[in-house]
Amino acid sequence: MSKAALVLVSHGKMAEETLKSAQMIVGNIDRAYTVSMDASGGLAGLNEKLKEVIGKIGDNGNIIVMVDLIGGTPSNSAAAELFGNDRIRLISGFNLGMVLEFATASIEDADELKNHLLEVGMSGIKDVFEEMTNIMKK
Q1: What's the whole-model pTM score?
Q2: Cβ(83)–Cβ(133) under 8 Å?
């Protein structure tokens, strides 16, 4: 079994820039793709780009799709286009830490990787001053 592919989907350039930032830190990330919705392409353009990327990945393993915002057009499009495909896991909300973890984790099972990425995303959001205060109290 090979590691899942990653597809980041967002409004504007968030997906592309998050992937670029991650690659600046860890180098090239194999099997990572982006789909960006822009004002000129709208929903139809987004759907076409998403189908193209999924087609490019082909039948080669599982796919983790991370969308920027639940309920937004990219999320709704991905859910509608990909629902029922047992190779795909869909996560709403992503951040740089999650993409870095995808790149560096050695987890091959798609469900385990999805759950790990969810945990990383949720645990990575902190009140920095509170964290610093807690550390200084020790």
Answers
A1: 0.93
A2: no
For 129, counting Cβ atoms within 10 Å of its Cβ (0-12 exposed, 13-18 middle, 19+ buried), the class is: exposed
Q: 135 by DSSP, 3-state: which?
A: helix
* 3-state SS, residue 98: helix
Nearest Cα neighbor of 74 from 96, 41, 29 is 41
| DSSP result, 24-79 | HHH---TTEEEEEE-TTTHHHHHHHHHHHHHHHHTTSS-EEEEESSTTSHHHHHHH
- The Cα–Cα gap between 11 and 17 comes to 11
pLDDT at 41 over 90: no
* End-to-end Cα separation, the chain, in angstroms: 44
pLDDT at 29 over 60: yes
Helix (H, G, I), strand (E, B) or coil at 99: helix
